[in-house]
Specification:
about 170 residues, alpha+beta, Immunoglobulin-like, 2 domains, four-stranded antiparallel sheet, 9 strands, about 40% strand
Length: about 170
Amino acid sequence: MKSQNKTIVVTVVITVIVLLAAFYFLMPVFGPRFMHPLMSERMHGNSSQVNASDLDTSTEKLTENGAFKVSFKSELDPIVIGPIHSWTIHVETADGQPVEGATILVDGGMPEHGHGLPTAPQVTQDLGNGDYLVEGLKFQMGGWWEVKFNISADGTTDNVTFNLVLGG
């Protein structure tokens, strides 16, 4: 009986070693092809991905409800991965009048990765004539980023989202 138990244990150990070795050597080859779609679906609720060429990457947009026209200019040109930097955003009414004294909140992140910005950017200064200084922006990796602004002025609140596609 002892010989039969020893054979079973050796067979199980060898089988486990072979399976682990196969997993170790084959996962880099086959894993991404199968795991990435599964992970993407789990993180985002579906397996569809956005094609970067389909994104509106303009630097001037109307807000979602059309209350404001917003544009931005980065101190970095082009915007690159790594450094913390500032943007100047310009906010005007739909008919072109500069918006003074607005309250602006900043948010964003990488929709395809399910994470936010690595910093907490905020509007630090009203520069006048509808211009606002946004400090603390950083993008730590390449891909599709969103930067979102929630703008409140004169009893009106509206949102705008800017899309960036950074190489990396």
